[in-house]
Each structure stands twice: as C-alpha cells, then as structure tokens.
Amino acid sequence: MTFPKVGALPNDVQVTAYGPGPGFCNLLTLWTTSGSTAVVRDVACYNATTRVNQASFVTYTSVY
C-alpha cells in the first residue's frame, strides 16, 4: 500500500489485526520512503501460530 504526499523522515509504521477473535499482524519487511510517498508491503497476520488472511489496520506517522 502507498501513503502519498506524507512521506517524511523520521517516520514510523504500525500494523494491527482487525476483526473478530484474537490475532496479530506484523511487517515482514521495512517500509520505504521515496520522495513524498511512503510504501508499506509484506504485512502478515496470524491467529496464534498460524498465518491467516485477516484484515489489518495500518498506520503511518511522520515528523511533519
């Protein structure tokens, strides 16, 4: 996913599982910032120890 016109350093990305039941998500790779666009890829979600296809909520923050 991309976050256009907000990419500025320093920045931070967080991802959280969204939906019913227990679960968690994490980033499998670092995000990148190119120009004014932040690019987040490879989000993985799990239910206990099994990788699942689950909705996630991704937030991006920067100093500006």
Write out key terms for the chains shown.
64 residues; mainly beta; 3-stranded antiparallel β-sheet; 0% helix; elongated
What does this structure look like?
The chain is an all-beta fold. The protein is built from no helices and eight strands. The chain has strands at 2-3, 11-17, 24-27, 32-34, 37-39, 43-47, 50-52, 56-62. Strands 1-5-4 form a three-stranded antiparallel beta sheet, with no helix packed on it. A three-stranded antiparallel beta sheet has the order 3-6-7, with no helix packed on it.
Task: Write a brief structural summary.
The chain has 64 residues and is mainly beta. It has strands spanning 2-3, 11-17, 24-27, 32-34, 37-39, 43-47, 50-52, 56-62.
By secondary-structure content and strand pairing, the structural class works out as: mainly beta
Unreliably modeled segments = none
The radius of gyration is: 13 Å
Strand content: over 45%
Name the shape in a single word: elongated
**Total number of β-strand segments?**
8
Largest sheet: 3 strands, antiparallel
Question: In angstroms, what separates the terminal alpha carbons?
Answer: 20 Å
**Overall pLDDT:** 92
Major sheet strand order? 1-5-4
**How do the SSEs run, as a string of H and E?**
EEEEEEEE
Helix fraction, binned, reads under 10%
Number of helices: 0
SSE arrangement:
Layout: E1 2-3, E2 11-17, E3 24-27, E4 32-34, E5 37-39, E6 43-47, E7 50-52, E8 56-62
Antiparallel strand pairs: 1-5, 2-8, 3-6, 4-5, 6-7
